[in-house]
Design brief:
The complex is a heterodimer of chains A (about 200) and B (about 70). Chain A is α/β, with parallel strands linked by helices. Helix content of chain A is about 35%, strand content about 15%. Chain A contains six helices and seven strands; from the N terminus they run H-E-H-E-H-E-H-E-H-E-E-E-H. A seven-stranded mixed sheet of chain A has the order 3-2-1-4-5-7-6, with helices on both faces. Chain B is mainly beta and about 70 residues long. Chain B has one helix and five strands, in the order ββαβββ. In chain B, strand 3 and strand 4 form a beta hairpin. Classes of the chains: A alpha/beta (about 200), B mainly beta (about 70). The interface between A and B is medium-sized, with 38 and 16 residues.
Chain lengths: ~200, ~70
């Protein structure tokens, strides 16, 4: 854990570029946390628009309903962390695209929703972006279970969540647990950028 | 008596069976076939190789379960 904070750390974060794949509950909260912490550049990848039900956990406002998520997120980041350069890619990830979408990123945060999309991205990143750290979310639905939101390391892949609790009828995706997981993803990304590779 | 060969699955010791593939192991763990990322001894095993990649005795298999929600 990094418990002392100095100018060298700040410079390192300012020079960093982090990819955020998905701008839903995990991605919107994680991106804002990274920008507030001083990460210099974010690459946001999402093709979706903000919908009213998203507002139970995603960092958007009623006035932003109907807008592209990455555009609304870039606006929200500019409002709280104007020093962060935000690159918006309104694209869908297809296998083989990861290296192009996230070129130059030291860390990529996986923040997709559907498990098939999550695993397709992770496989692509593991195969085609060999220099980047990956911080994924898996098992973040439900209420409570704070201590189950562990972070596990598998080589250069870090996974936040309980790897069990799926969003399903009766198992909601709600702000507190999703945002807690997103904050843990951001915290892990910062640690990696600053050279701490422990989970 | 020689010791029975084993492999590890997410840090748990399991008896090893000759020829057991990644796909067969995952099916054994969950017949619905979990959506997962698999690593063996630190190497990523791509999904396309699951049906042919046999687990050798002593290898460390890690299965990362990928769950809906984001």
């Amino acid at each position: 854990m990094i418990s002392s904070w100095n100018d060298a750390h700040r410079r390192r974060l300012a020079a960093a570029r982090v990819g955020v794949a998905g701008a839903g509950g995990l991605g919107s909260t994680c991106a804002i946390a990274l920008a507030r912490a001083g990460v210099g550049a974010l690459v946001l990848v999402d093709f979706d628009v903000v919908e009213l039900p998203n507002l139970n956990r995603q960092a958007y406002t009623v006035a932003q309903v109907g807008r592209l998520k990455i555009e609304a997120l870039a606006e929200n980041i500019a409002a709280c962390a104007p020093g962060c350069r935000v690159h918006q890619l309104a694209r869908r990830h297809e296998p083989g695209l990861a290296a192009e979408l996230f070129a130059g990123c030291q860390v990529v945060v996986e923040a997709f929703d559907r498990p098939e999309a999550k695993v397709a991205l992770l496989e692509d990143l593991l195969e085609h972006l060999p220099e980047a750290w990956i911080v994924a979310g898996s098992g973040i639905a439900g209420i409570g279970g704070n201590s189950s939101l562990a972070t596990k390391r598998f080589g250069r892949l870090f996974v936040v969540g309980d790897q069990r609790t799926a969003a399903a009828p009766g198992v909601p995706l709600l702000g507190p647990r999703v945002m807690a997981a997103a904050a843990l993803q951001a915290n892990q990304a910062l640690a990696l950028l600053l050279g701490d590779t422990d989970a | 008596m020689p010791e029975r060969p084993i492999f590890t699955l997410n840090d748990e010791l399991r008896p090893w069976q000759a020829g057991l593939t990644v796909q067969e192991l995952l099916h054994e763990l969950d017949p619905a076939m979990p959506i997962a990322v698999v690593r063996i001894d630190g190497d990523h095993i791509a999904r396309k190789d699951w049906s042919t990649r046999a687990i050798a005795a002593g290898e460390q298999v890690r299965v990362v379960y990928i769950i809906a929600g984001g």
